[in-house]
Amino acid sequence: MAQLPFNILDQDSDSASGTLHELRRCLLAWYGHNRRDLPWRRTADPYAVWVSEIMLQQTRVAAVLPRYEDFMRNFPSVESLANAAEADVLALWSGLGYYRRARMLHKAAKVVAFEYRGVMPLVAAELRALPGIGAYTSAAIASIAFGEAVAVVDGNVERVVQRLAGWGSESASGQAKLARDVELMANRILDPGRPGDFNQAMMELGATVCLPRNPNCLLCPLEGFCQTRGEHPTRPRAKMRSQDAAYALVVRTGSKGREVLLDQRSDDQSVMPGMWELPGMRDLARPNADVRLSVRHAIMQVNYYVRIHTVFEEDVDEVILPAGRRCWVPLKQLGTLPLTGLARKVLLRAKLAELATVAEVADA
Ligand code: SF4
Questions:
Q1: Do the strands 302-310 and 241-249 form a parallel or antiparallel pair, or are they unpaired?
Q2: Does residue 223's CB lie within 6 angstroms of at least one atom of ligand 1?
């Protein structure tokens, strides 16, 4: 095996072609034996690939797995998603965070179903015209579902390519040029005969072997081609801020059984508009005596240290912040509401909700 020449982008020699051919063969053979069995890898349905790729953005595979299967059970086709109410789509997205992704997916499904007669565009450049589909997602759908030879470049692939080529993230040529070179390089090494498998193999290698802090080079199928073998500077992690928060858990028994008090975030909120959450406490420094549970909840760069207070119905006006829209929600209907991740986490921990899927609740 030969290392990838540092300047391979400028080379078109037979030896560079031979190296690339061998690299592709090694990576695909490794992927064939080591790929994780994930539900979206058992299909080439472009809609299924699309849903999975949107869910996987900034979200761990373990978190996506149960939500993906629920989502596909409820919305098995682009038409079923297009015809769904937004609240039902958000309810099934609950727990995945970054709800804008769900709204854009829903919007794009309407374009495909109603303007494109249910047929997805076949090439990456046209897929990018759909709401919420950028370079990464369009390349993933086009290569995996339609066999277009276009490289997917996510954070994992970027890291693998930089390490293979020996390009530092502190490159003197600047971040913009580095990003362009990484994309060119990813397309150069892509196997044009099996672009979908090759892209998934690169992502899998970055996710399971070429890890950000401790790359497992001894198990890497590309070790013989790699310029750095792990000696690659990693970007410092963004520093997390801490913030205290306090919410109220108010439960009563009403005409429809046990109910919990929830507030709906207004549509003009920049974060999670329209989602349902627990009411906020007026006083962050209330005594610990009525704290039902404490949770840590991370949203983007902030760690929230949240205290959940038990509040009685008769004390609501005194201790809870006012809200635009507030409702008593029967526990058995919680699964049909788009809940914020924090509300979902608290209701589950307080054993107030099984958070059944839309279909399960509808069947009940
Ligand atoms: S040899 Fe190590 S650094 Fe190089 S690609 Fe493989 S895991 Fe990453």
A1: parallel
A2: yes
pLDDT of residue 5: 58
- The model's pTM is 0.70
Whether domain 8-225 has CATH 1.10.340.30: the reply is yes
* Nearest residue to 281 via CA among 256, 316, 257: 316
**Same CATH topology for 8-225 and 241-363?**
no
CB 168 within 8 A of CB 231: no
- Domain segments of the chain: what residues? 8-225, 241-363
Tell me if 229 CB under 6 Å of ligand 1. Answer: yes
Q: Is 226 in the pocket of ligand 1 (CB under 6 A)?
A: yes
User: Is a pLDDT exceeding 90 seen at residue 75?
Assistant: yes
pLDDT at 242: 87
For residue 47, what are its two tokens?
Answer: 């809609």
Cα 159 to ligand 1 centroid, rounded to whole Å: 9
Instruction: Write out pLDDT tens, residues 230-280.
Output: 765 555 566 788 888 999 999 998 888 899 999 999 888 877 888 999 999
160 CB within 6 A, ligand 1: yes
The first and second tokens of residue 44, run together, are 């080439």
Q: Which atom from ligand 1 is nearest to the alpha carbon of 226?
A: 4
Mark whether 223 is an active-site residue: no
Q: What is the mean pLDDT of residues 52-80?
A: 93
**Segment 123-160, tens digit of pLDDT:** 999 999 999 999 999 999 999 999 999 999 999 999 99
pLDDT score, position 362: 33
Gap between the Cα atoms of 201 and 32, Å rounded: 9
Of residues 283 and 342, more confidence is placed in 342
Which mutation among 162, 209, 214, 219 tests ligand 1's pocket best, with the greatest number of atoms within 8 A of CB? 209
Q: Does 3.30.43.10 match the CATH number of domain 241-363?
A: no
